[in-house]
Design goal:
With 332 residues, the chain is of the alpha+beta class. It contains 13 helices and six strands. The chain has a four-stranded mixed β-sheet. The chain has a two-stranded antiparallel ribbon with strand order 5-6. α5 links the parallel β1 and β2. The two termini are 68 Å apart. 19% of the residues are buried.
């Protein structure tokens, strides 16, 4: 519609400019004034009819003498040019926005099934936000988990890609997406095959699922050299990704459930931000707080987290000291 209007305006403008007022005095009135007269007559409600229209048309009619037609033609062409400029500008901005979305998001439609307060879900959100990947969030009820009843995998986070490919485990999600961002020609289905799921039984007799290669970004030799130009960078990255999963996450509980009061305050936040019914929230707040207080004490002993009494922080656990010790022992 806009393009048709611009073409009409340009045609009218050039016709006016090409016409000679002395030779073809009726060109403006025959081409333009008739339509204007009709338009004005439709809108001249209670304005005096013909007399009113004659007053509106008089400037246009007098323009036939003294070069008025050329002025009118220039005005029409100017309006058409201005409209064309804004249209081109809008189209260009729209194209750039689409390209930016395509580059940043890789053209993927991502839906994240999560618990908002889960540290592993927070890890995935941090990755998505850092790389500017657009995604939708589905908050899962931690008790009934109706939102993921369609999935055999009953944990979160779960990331659905284009409504077809399901990515489980926060580390696999990050490694798979990182691989795709580097080489967008590889489909997520092909990438996911690089992280096969392996079921086993842990020391407590519980069946667990582990994913092979989950800390590796699957790259060609050339891509690896470009991403990790210096020797040892890739191993360093894998080391700290493992540390975050195996140690850092487990430091949260001993720090936020140190006392019964802090445990209650923590679960008050969890219930408020999570997706609980009234009854579920009540039990989660009181029963869950008591349970996590006990679990935190066990984790404190298992992870050998000690109080930082020397710094006078009222019994706050020293994650900095623990970080230093673990770096010097396990990850040298």
């Amino acid at each position: 519609m806009a393009a048709a209007c611009r073409r009409t305006l340009c045609k009218v403008g050039w016709s006016i400019l090409e016409s000679q007022p002395a030779r073809r005095p009726g060109i403006v009135s025959s081409y333009l004034l008739g339509n204007v007269s009709t338009l004005v007559s439709r809108r001249a409600f209670g304005t005096g009819g013909t007399g009113y229209r004659s007053k509106l048309l008089s400037p246009l009619q007098t323009g036939r003498a003294g070069g008025g037609g050329r002025v009118l033609g220039c005005a029409v062409l100017f309006g058409a040019g201005l409209g064309l400029y804004h249209t081109v500008k809008f189209r260009l901005q729209q194209h750039l926005a689409e390209e930016e979305t395509k580059v940043s998001g890789g053209g993927l439609k991502l839906i994240l099934y999560q618990y908002k307060t889960c540290p592993f879900c927070s890890k995935v959100r941090a990755f998505l936000d850092y790389h500017g990947l657009p995604y939708e969030i589905v908050e899962v009820n931690p008790v009934m988990r109706k939102e993921i009843k369609w999935s055999d995998y009953r944990k979160v986070p779960i990331l659905m890609v284009d409504g077809e490919v399901q990515l489980n485990d926060s580390t696999v999600i990050i490694s798979s997406l990182r691989t795709h961002l580097i080489n967008k020609e590889r489909s997520m289905t092909d990438i996911l095959q690089c992280y096969p799921a392996m079921k086993s039984v842990n020391d407590h007799g519980k069946e667990v699922t582990e994913y092979n290669n989950k800390y590796w970004v699957m790259l060609t030799e050339a891509e690896s050299l470009e991403l990790y130009p210096e020797k040892g960078i890739q191993k360093e990255e894998i080391k700290w990704r493992k540390w975050a999963d195996e140690w850092l996450v487990h430091l949260i509980s001993p720090n936020v459930y140190r006392t019964t009061g802090e445990a209650m305050a923590s679960f008050d936040y969890i219930v408020r931000e999570g997706k609980f019914s009234t009854m579920e929230g009540f039990f989660a707040k009181y029963v869950g707080a008591a349970a996590m207080y006990i679990i935190a004490k066990r984790l404190k002993s298992r992870r050998q987290v000690q109080k930082d009494e020397d710094r006078g922080e009222g019994g706050c656990f020293s994650s900095v000291q623990f970080l230093r010790d673990s770096k010097e022992s396990s990850f040298c």
